[in-house]
Design goal:
Elements: E1 3-11, H1 19-37, E2 45-49, H2 51-60, H3 62-73, E3 77-80, H4 94-112, E4 118-120, H5 130-136, E5 141-145, H6 146-150, E6 163-167, E7 170-177, H7 179-184, H8 190-202, E8 208-213, H9 223-229, H10 232-246, E9 249-252, H11 254-260, H12 275-280, H13 284-297, H14 301-304, H15 316-319, H16 321-339, H17 343-351, H18 369-387, E10 393-397, E11 406-410, E12 414-419, E13 425-431, E14 436-437, H19 450-454, H20 479-483, E15 496-500, H21 506-510, E16 526-530, E17 533-542, E18 550-561, E19 566-575, E20 581-591, H22 594-598, E21 602-605, E22 608-610, E23 616-627, E24 631-654, E25 657-675, E26 680-689
Parallel strand pairs: 1-2, 1-8, 1-9, 2-3, 4-5, 5-7
Antiparallel strand pairs: 6-7, 10-11, 11-12, 12-13, 13-14, 15-20, 16-17, 17-18, 18-19, 19-26, 20-25, 21-22, 21-23, 23-24, 24-25, 24-26
Helix pairs in contact: 1-3, 2-3, 16-17, 16-18, 17-18
């Protein structure tokens, strides 16, 4: 009996990825895969490529684009659609979702003459609410993981076929990707893979289902040699050809399977993604607890694992406030774009919905500043077009949906957002003129994989005749990486007030362990508006070691000038304790200047150049961060101050090992203060984007 086999490949590169990287991936994976595939015309497959990658091929690598078209023309490849800019469809507004899909469908129709009926769900993030929209757009099927079905109560042997689901009277076919095949291809020897396919057939399976990342063929570590140089792909295709001749297998595209094979029945699936994604969406400590629980299940792991789940994709907005702000600002600009018809702004807005910079698993994503920069740049470009004819305004709203109000200053030139509930700090300061968010800095947090850096354990390795999956590679951290495992106790915003131990030094500031005496850095402030001035204040205190609270009233008055490009900041400190207190008072800024985004420029204090690649202490009154063609960031003080400055670096994993990534610059001018009963101390800062 023939075993029908559907084989799918998904290819995507993030918005903002470097051209050199996409070129390398194309020449090491995407193109050679298609080139070898062309030699075996009997092997049919379904292929999804995001609009971002398709457009890059069209503009920069025409031979890949043309070869893809040739294979589509001869019926060997079925093109699969998706959101053009690869968004998580379930978390963007409904009208945007429809436009993303229609743009991708129109592109495939225009360039390849095909009207796709299948849709690739980005990161396989499923939500039943998608069904109606997809069906009404002409989508007949989607692919998800078999886990989506297993957590609903289905058994593994029921998943060698597809099911129908419905919502609002609209039907949609859902194919469950076989997890075993997803982990086997291309890592198992072809003989072992063949035995597994035979086992599916022997057990009465109606369909073998595979769909996964194309980068596994040549880009993942070890796969270039294994797949191409040692011939795994050719051997696999030749084996499929032999099976085809013997009548053991039937090679179909997903669309063909939909026509030839009847569904297994009806299914309703919960909000879900693949198992690793659900784990990554959990808080770091909960990930470790989940891993411990799974380990305790042995040897009953396979029996009960389906009933143990992590979080869902939206939880990344809780786990990473930087992601949440980006997402909620996207929603704000999306709403604006639907009220003001501006086609170019709509295109920029849709591009800003590219998923990669909104989340982090074990590699890249949110942790790559150039990806966040690219998304912010598109979002701000859209906003710039939409606000170009609007007046300057101050809007009081809950911009990040946390139940607390923020103060949003919008103009045709800038967007500045203050958060009274968190220190009255700046959580966003963006220039709409150069489409750059100067506060795009990631806080240093504990990640679950940091435990294995500090306490290395034996990791699974491949057998002699197979190659390791990307998840099982041995990695050894350097001393520099170990030293960089530092975690912040407050979010890295700007205008953070510190009162700290006068005995602490630069290295303590880098380690975020500088003896904080005040209760201002991450606490709520009251506020009111007086004319054009925003006044934040907190009746807080100082807590020197071994001492009770010493009352201190802090007022932070901010004038937003030049349509948000200049901030005048006035501090008033009223000391209300009887004891003398000597400490340092500092104002911390965390910045992602164009200097870091573009890799060119300099930092100066009083006109003299400084290094910004390592921690440094210096003195001065005027600090400038210059970038050619992108202007300057200027900090002016009313009097000389000491400064601490260091590059904020995070530790994350990569295919090659562990990466140290510069997320921004932490800059803090500070002054020695001697408080006496009744002391009134004033400080003034001017911040300017020129």
């Amino acid at each position: 009996m023939k075993l029908p086999f559907v084989f799918g490949v998904h290819n995507h590169q993030p918005l903002g990825n470097f051209d050199s990287v996409i070129k390398r991936l194309t020449e090491e994976s995407y193109y050679p895969f298609l080139k070898i595939l062309a030699q075996y015309p009997f092997f049919r497959l379904s292929l999804h490529a995001s609009g971002i990658l398709l457009k890059w091929w069209e503009d920069n690598h025409p031979k890949t684009f043309e070869l893809l078209g040739k294979l589509i023309d001869r019926g060997q490849i079925e093109p699969v659609t998706g959101g053009f800019f690869e968004p998580i469809l379930a978390v963007i507004p409904r009208e945007d979702r429809k436009e993303q899909i229609l743009r991708h469908k129109d592109y495939l129709k225009k360039h390849f003459g095909q009207n796709p009926v299948g849709l690739w769900l980005t990161e396989r993030v499923w939500d039943q609410a998608l069904v109606e929209d997809l069906a009404l757009l002409g989508i007949k099927y989607v692919v998800v993981d078999d886990r989506h079905f297993l957590v609903s109560g289905f058994e593994k042997n029921e998943l060698y076929g597809y099911y129908l689901t419905e919502a609002e009277g609209q039907k949609l076919a859902v194919f469950p990707i076989d997890e075993t095949l997803r982990y086997a291809i291309p890592f198992w020897p072809v003989e072992r893979l063949g035995r597994y396919l035979e086992d599916i057939s022997f057990r009465g399976g109606r369909l073998a289902i595979y769909f996964d990342d194309g980068e596994k063929f040549g880009v993942w570590p070890g796969t270039k040699k294994w797949v191409f140089e040692e011939g795994w792909l050719k051997k696999f295709l030749e084996t499929m050809g032999q099976w085809l001749e013997k009548g053991k297998i039937e090679l179909l595209t997903y669309a063909q399977a939909l026509e030839k094979i009847t569904p297994n029945g009806l299914a309703y699936l919960p909000t879900a993604s693949y198992a690793e994604m659900e784990e990554w969406a959990l808080p770091a400590k909960r990930i470790l607890e989940l891993e411990e629980l799974i380990n305790r299940l042995k040897p009953d792991k396979s029996r009960f694992l389906a009933f143990i789940r992590g979080g869902h994709w939206r939880n990344f907005f809780i786990k990473y406030p930087e992601s949440n702000l980006l997402h909620k600002r996207m929603l704000k600009v999306s709403e604006l774009s639907r009220r003001h018809l501006e086609p170019e702004a709509r295109l920029d807005l849709l591009a800003s919905q590219c998923n990669d910079a909104y989340w982090h698993g074990i590699f890249g994503g949110l942790y790559l500043p150039h990806l966040r920069q690219a998304v912010w740049q598109k979002l701000l470009s859209a906003e710039s077009k939409l606000r170009s004819k609007q007046k300057e305004e101050i809007e009081i709203c809950d911009i990040d949906y946390d139940g607390q109000e923020e103060i949003c200053c919008f103009s045709p030139k800038a967007a500045v957002i203050f958060k009274p509930s968190y220190g009255g700090q700046i959580i966003e300061w963006s220039s709409l003129e150069n489409t750059h968010n100067y506060t795009n800095v990631l806080t240093r947090r504990f990640e679950a994989y940091h435990k294995s850096i500090r306490h290395p354990e034996t990791q699974a390795v491949a057998g002699e005749e197979e190659v390791s999956s990307i998840h099982n590679l041995r990695k050894k951290p350097s001393e520099e990486v170990l030293k960089a495992l530092v975690y912040d106790w407050y979010e890295r915003h700007s205008l953070i007030e510190h009162f700290f131990d006068p005995g602490r030094e630069l290295e303590d500031f880098v380690r975020c362990d500088f003896g904080e005496w005040g209760d201002f850095a991450n606490q709520p402030f009251n506020w009111h508006k007086k004319g054009k001035e925003l006044i934040f204040f907190r009746d807080g205190g100082l807590y020197p070691p071994g001492s009770s609270r010493r009352p201190l009233l802090l007022r932070k008055k901010i004038k937003v000038e030049k349509e948000g490009l200049v901030l005048q900041v006035f501090y008033e400190l009223e000391y209300r304790a009887s004891q003398k207190t000597r400490c340092f008072f500092g104002v911390e800024l965390n910045l992602y200047p164009p200097l870091l985004a573009w890799g060119e420029g300099c930092v100066k204090i009083n006109g003299q150049k400084l290094t910004f690649h390592r921690p440094i202490k210096f003195f001065g009154k005027t600090l400038t961060i210059e970038t050619e063609k992108k202007g300057k960031f200027i900090l002016k003080l009313d009097e000389q101050a000491s400064f601490f400055m260091f590059p904020v670096k995070t530790v994350s994993q990569s295919e090659a090992g562990f990466d140290l990534t510069t997320q921004g610059l932490a800059i803090m001018p500070f002054w020695p203060i001697e408080f006496q009963e009744g002391s009134h101390i004033n400080k003034t800062l001017t911040l300017e984007i020129s």
